[in-house]
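Researcher: Let's try something more involved. This one mixes different molecule types, so please make sure each is placed in the same coordinate frame as the others.
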Amino acid sequence: MMITGTTRLFGIIGDPVAPLRSPALFNAGFARLARDAAFLPFEVPAGDLPAVWAGLTRLRNLDGLVMTMPHKEAVVPLLDALGPTARLTGTVNTVRRREGGGWEGEMFDGEGFRDGLERAGHAPRGAAILQVGCGAAGRAIAFALARAGVGRLTLHDAAAGRAEALVAALKAGWPSLEVAAGAAAPAGHAIIVNATPLGLRPGDPLPLQPDTIAPGQVVADVIPKPEITPLLAAARERGCPIVTGRAMHEGQARLAAAYLGITGWEG
Amino acid sequence: MMITGTTRLFGIIGDPVAPLRSPALFNAGFARLARDAAFLPFEVPAGDLPAVWAGLTRLRNLDGLVMTMPHKEAVVPLLDALGPTARLTGTVNTVRRREGGGWEGEMFDGEGFRDGLERAGHAPRGAAILQVGCGAAGRAIAFALARAGVGRLTLHDAAAGRAEALVAALKAGWPSLEVAAGAAAPAGHAIIVNATPLGLRPGDPLPLQPDTIAPGQVVADVIPKPEITPLLAAARERGCPIVTGRAMHEGQARLAAAYLGITGWEG
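Model: All components are placed in one shared frame. Result:
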């Protein structure tokens, strides 16, 4: 596919952008669909988002954007309308033009993770799940797990009060949900989820002690790159089925593509 | 070439962008050079340039921009430094990051036209040239023809006073230059240049009466698309050598690529 003057633009806003998989994934999709469109990395430091937003949204040939760290919450006040999951989580990962003007956004990180987990053969319905990390991605994932009918959910975050706040938000939406803040202790859970950014950078500490994981427990990670994080490597060594960030990422991309009107994504 | 998270960005800001050849030309160049870079069309209405500029220049992975209609003059006050031709013409077609911060711009439309004309075998040195159109592109071309040692230059513009103002500006730089404002009358000139936008859109009037062109006079056009404008078609029918906007455009691209640090452009 060659970019010409008629090519429609899409992109992802984040910092850093070098490790992101979305550009390769979407451009491969556009090539497969023979669609005259390109998906670009836009590297934007946190404080620059309002100015960049004002500029990019004035490009008449730009049709949509994916938002990633550190912009998933910061973009919310810049939008003219929010989808239901964006309203619930206060975060957005995909934005598009509204008919009649302005921009609207929705959050697919959680549903993308859930979709990837299910396609990997590990449905969250009825399962006991430990989730470490309750930031923007973690919030979205917890809501998606609740919506999917998780059996019991334990939430942990190193920052004081964050897990408790998410428990309260989940209880408000699903009063009978079995959810509690707790230690990063895998025992008693069928699925362990890392929703922290730990593992993205070399030398990061592990999000939990790997020797507390038992063979047979499913370990899933949200980190897109490296695909096999130190946590997943340790889990695999202990005989655990693993689900990499790629599964979540492909799930997000499927849902974002549909939201952005990119039809035929899955052939 | 596949765009990924590490791909460096370049682009052209204009309106409309669909007819522009720069994206295809630069992306073919990047592919030839195996350079991890992409060149994008950015469609920006005239009044939106300041906001778009503030946004795009904050993209840390954007290295340079080409400016085209209607932004070649409007970008000048947004820059931190200007090259010599940009200062002379008050117009800019290429911008890049400065070492130490900020952005600088230079104007290559005129030198690109001159370069294309020479490569087509029609050196302006010593020649009598009629140039129709004294807008931003026309000003740059006239300065490049003066610098190249044109023998005699006749300038015409449909807007009152525009040709005369350009004559005065040229005389200030080259006091002994033989240049005058005059009618759009080819007689007595070896080379006829269309530097107006007439021919870009279907149904445009011709920039001059084609039946006043004599066989053997060289007719050159700045319009990038259609490559054979109605003026060039008429000139070719009358047995005139023609130089299309492609020659100018490839000349501009060579000079812009060098300014943007894209080495090895011509293999």
